[in-house]
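Might I ask for a little of your time on a matter of protein folding? Here, with my thanks, is the record as I have it:
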Amino acid sequence: MSEIISLQGFEKAQNILKNNLAIPIPPKFNSLIDERNHRKERLVAALRIFSRCGFDEGVAGHITVRDPEFTDSFWVNPFGIHFSLIKISDLIRVDHQGKIVEGNYPVNAAAFAIHSRIHMAHPKIDAAAHAHSTYGKTWSILGKYLDPLTQDACAFYKHHEVYEEYNGLILDSHEGDNIAKLLNNKKAVILKNHGLLTVGNTVDSAAWWFITMERSCQVQLLAEATVNDSSQLSKINHTAAINAFNIVGTEDAGWFGFQPLYDRLKKEFPDLNV
């Protein structure tokens, strides 16, 4: 958790959530098999939701989730299959050396170079998401941090970084190491001239952070286009931004934000293996 978050504000937010019994929390599991199946289903759901959001672009983009038993490996979408068509049975499991230990499809080299280093460097990060979304790519060209212009954007207040290098496709694990270092308890990195990368303790939160960060990029781009100087924009003050972060920027809030999207998808596709 970022040092800017006040403990008092965080505890207040947690108490609000605890006292509201209607708000669900991430599930617990009786076995590693159940947890693995859950993670894989949520991964496929996130990929299909990314497709609906328009985040798919050719073969680019990847979401990963750590295996709960073999923690030195992760599940990822196979290279070359459209997000909307991926089934649970299509997923592949890759270890940190790049070996495909389960599955029959190739892995995206960039997915391995980035995600393997994140999972290796941050044992508490179980999921990561990256895609070539329109507004994330556009914002990345500017090489700037997002400002706290809206309540939703406050989820990233002092909680994201900018990776300022661009050396072509990220195929070198050294670059993956540099990106992993930048995360350092943050939930997102803006990859300059490339796009957005978000992480979480669950696929749900990592996917939600990506979706809402993409929209925050869109909002700031639109807002800046309406003024002659960005200093004319009304930014949320530091204290208010922290207070908002303590509600909308927590890991549980990220997980919860994804649930309505998942519920809608499951209603239309009860079986994500078809």
Summary: The helical segments are 7-19, 32-52, 109-121, 134-142, 173-183, 203-225, 238-248, 251-268.
